[in-house]
Amino acid sequence: MGEARRRRAAAALPGASAPSPASGTGQEASATPRTALVRRVLSAWPRGASRRALGGLHGPAHRLRVWHNAMLLTAATPGADAEVAELFALIHDSRRVSDGDDPEHGTRAAIFAVQLAAEGWLRLDISRLELLRAACEQHEMGDITADPTIGCCWDADRLELSRLGVRPNPALLSTNAALNEGVLALAWERGMSWTAEPGLAAAWGLDPKALARRW
Q1: Among 53, 88, 56, which Cα is nearest to 69's?
Q2: What does the domain layout of the chain look like in residue ranges?
Q3: pLDDT tens figures, 46-100
Q4: First-to-last CA distance in the chain?
Q5: Which of 13, 90, 102, 177 is the most buried if burial means most Cβ atoms within 10 Å?
Q6: What pTM value is reported for the model?
Q7: Dihedral sign of CA atoms 65, 69, 75, 80 in order
Q8: SS3 for the chain, per residue?
Q9: How far is CA 211 from CA 55, 60, 87, in A?
């Protein structure tokens, strides 16, 4: 990723805003709306969930790589909403209770997205919130879609099968951008290395060295 694009990616999270942290939350006063939202999401462990390592299979490093994939896909897909795609990357696996088979974790993530909006963390109109909700709810179903934003979200996640040594099935990719050989190669390299782009990690207020730990 070029320096100019990295700087654009590190700008404040589009479509998201955080209320002022309550006293005693441990959040620094200098936290940006984006990093405050990330902390809110990462600290909201579902009931019954084990506290996974920071570098877990579906943890922050995975979600950063999904965002990285989504940035490339939305840039090449007319009509795709990059802001919603970033929020999807952050939220879609946030309500998992297991790194294994976890039915309905997408539904729980969709409910959480609506909750975050109701709490004032997200600045999305109804139509954009619905895109985020639908993308989260159905991302585990193995479907494809003609919607450019939802397609980019799902494809960004499926390109991350690389971390398991699995290449995505082209028939299950929704966007032409995800079939690009260069995009596929970069996603494979990132996933196989289990690393996250330092600039993107910094944008979320995370330590890239900690994210490099494997599950």
Answers
A1: 88
A2: 32-211
A3: 665 555 534 477 778 889 999 999 999 999 999 999 999 999 999 988 887 666 5
A4: 26
A5: 90
A6: 0.81
A7: negative
A8: CCHHHHHHHCCCCCCECCCCCCCCCCCCCCCCHHHHHHHHHHCCCCCCCCCCCCCCCCCHHHHHHHHHHHHHHHHCCCCCCHHHHHHHHHHCCCCCCCCCCCCCHHHHHHHHHHHHHHCCCECCCHHHHHHHHHHHHHCCCCCCCCCHHHHHHHHHHHHHHHHHCCCCCHHHCCCCHHHCHHHHHHHHHHHHHCCCCHHHHHHCCCCHHHHCCCC
A9: 5, 7, 19
Rounded Cα–Cα distance for residues 87 and 177 (Å) = 20
Q: Are the C-beta atoms of 4 and 170 separated by less than 8 Å?
A: no
Domain 32-211 grouped into CATH 1.10.3210.10:
yes
For the segment 111-155, what is each residue's pLDDT rounded down to a tens digit?
Answer: 999 999 999 999 899 999 999 999 999 888 788 999 999 999 999
Residue 109 CB neighbour total at 10 angstroms: 26
